[in-house]
Design brief:
Elements lengths: L5 H32 L11 H9 L1 H19 L8 H19 L6 H22 L2 H13 L1 H15 L12 H24 L3 H17 L1 H7 L1
Helix pairs in contact: 1-8, 1-9, 2-3, 3-9, 4-5, 4-6, 7-8, 8-9
């Protein structure tokens, strides 16, 4: 872990973000070579239909979920386990409570009201868990996870990518095309974990995740403006 001051952490954030984009570029070059050598290989056979539908029907909700909600929740699900502090362990548990509750909320509830409720529930759950879970247990769990941080970093990167298979299919399945479609998410998960370790804080992977998704939103901006 690097002992960086805030200005150096910011520089490190942009440095890692640049390396992540460069790795994307190399991967997509490789994908282009594969498609050239094997014209029958169809990478477009799967689509993110639900996300495309959301983009068309409610672009502001799409932006909120992509740039704010998803970075906080997904980093809370995965990067909290990489060299965690005691608060990050509690945040990990809080996020999974919210994930479970989200699945129980009727889909016809107004989206802004739904997420305001989840924010309030998250604050209450965090304070409650912080009080009832002994500090000694939190410390022991943090020490245990930190001992194996490289393994956890790599595993969470892979799982983070595989979870995004559900963007393309309803149930979990895997084939070569689906795996290639989620490779950029595995790459992203790797760099989110890297910045968490180097900058020593969950704020940094959340910010980098928001930057990553925000870049996609910028490319979709003409489509977003047309939908509004």
């Amino acid at each position: 872990m690097l002992n960086l001051h805030p200005p150096d952490k910011l520089k490190n954030l942009f440095r890692n973000f640049g390396w992540m984009l460069a790795t994307y570029f190399i991967f997509f070059l490789f994908l282009g070579v594969i498609k050239t050598l094997f014209p029958e290989f169809d990478i477009t056979q799967y689509e993110q239909s639900d996300l495309n539908k959301l983009l068309q029907e409610n672009p502001w909700k799409f932006v909120f979920l992509a740039v704010i909600f998803a970075p906080i929740v997904e980093e809370g699900m995965f990067r909290t386990l990489v060299k965690p502090s005691q608060n990050e362990i509690i945040f990990f548990l809080t996020i999974w409570i919210l994930v479970i509750v989200t699945a129980l909320i009727p889909i016809d509830v107004f989206w802004l009201l739904k997420y305001l409720f989840l924010i309030m529930l998250g604050v209450i759950s965090f304070v409650f868990l912080k009080q009832i879970i002994p500090g000694q247990f939190q410390q022991k769990m943090g020490n245990f996870l930190s001992r194996y941080y490289i393994l956890i970093w790599l595993i969470t990167s892979l799982v983070f990518g595989l979870v995004h298979i559900f963007n393309y299919v309803d149930g979990f399945e895997i084939d070569l095309v689906l795996f290639l479609l989620v490779v950029p998410r595995v790459i992203a998960g790797f760099f989110f974990g890297k910045i968490k370790i180097e900058n020593n804080g969950l704020f940094w992977p959340i910010l980098m995740h928001a930057m990553n998704n925000g870049t996609v939103v910028l490319f979709l901006l003409p489509k977003l403006l047309f939908s509004i």
